[in-house]
Amino acid sequence: ISNMQDYQILLDAVRQNFADVASRYRVHEKQADICAERYKRIETINIFVAILTFCGVLFLIIEPDKNYLWIKIATSILTVIMVAIAAYFKSSDLKILEKQHRETAGKFLAFKNHLEQIIADIHIRRRAILDIEIEYKRMMECLNELYATVPVAYDKVLEKRYGICNGEKRSIYTEAEIDALLPPALKGQVEKYTKSIAEHEKALETLG
Question: Other CB atoms closer than 10 Å to residue 122's CB: what's the count?
Answer without folding.
Answer: 26
